[in-house]
Design brief:
Layout lengths: L21 H7 L1 H15 L4 H13 L3 H13 L8 H14 L3 H9 L9 H13 L3 H16 L16 H13 L3 H10 L1
Helix pairs in contact: 2-3, 3-4, 3-5, 4-5, 5-6, 5-7, 6-7, 7-8, 8-9, 9-10
């Protein structure tokens, strides 16, 4: 309170927040509420990139991908290199483009930050998935294999949200799909078993 950090100590209690499960979002009208709150705040602070990012996330969850892209583009315009949400911002914009059937554009967009986020499984996975979409299967395979390598390393501390699935389950499954469709059944089976 009053500008001071709240004191805290470990309690041994873990919380699982499920308030944003699809059924909860629909029942409680959370998206409309969040959108209204974010737009009201943006009316006063239109230069705040983080607010634009959160608006994009809200619109993306509601499958309003074109509108989410506009918000994400505004967030990128206002972003700073040290913003902890920056990797997820780029990945989210790429996800919206993919949902709109624009995987090549999404790949180009995300490739701009590929080097900066090369150790982030989520970014590597997104790039591989997009490469698979457009038929660049060798690139996709390399990306999924890299995700599995990254999954073997200790997770790097990061302020950006990250998905544990991008470190193992998702790339292994997608390798199985890739191998299955390219006539490599033994490799497909091994990848599916790993998933």
């Amino acid at each position: 309170r009053h500008g001071r950090a709240l004191a805290g100590r470990p309690t041994g209690v873990a919380l699982l927040h499920q308030g944003y499960l699809p059924e909860q979002v629909l029942v409680r009208g959370k998206l409309a509420r969040n959108e209204a709150l974010l737009r009201a705040e943006l009316a006063e602070r239109a230069d705040d990139g983080y607010l634009w990012y959160q608006l994009g996330r809200t619109l993306e969850v509601g499958e309003r991908f074109e509108e989410a892209l506009v918000a994400y583009e505004r967030a990128v315009e206002r972003a700073q290199d040290a913003d902890p949400h920056l990797p997820h911002l780029f990945e989210s914009a790429a996800t919206c483009l993919r949902a709109l059937g624009r995987s090549q554009q999404a790949l180009d967009w995300l490739a701009e930050v590929e080097d900066a986020f090369a150790e982030r499984p989520d970014t590597v996975f997104s790039l591989a998935l997009l490469a698979m979409d457009i038929g660049e299967l060798e690139r996709a395979e390399r990306g999924f294999l890299r995700c599995l390598e990254l999954g073997q390393l200790p997770a790097r501390p990061s302020a950006a949200e990250s998905s544990s699935a991008a470190r193992g389950l998702a790339p292994a499954h997608n390798l199985g799909v890739l191998y299955e469709h390219t006539g490599r059944p033994a490799e497909a089976r091994a990848a599916y078993l790993r998933a």
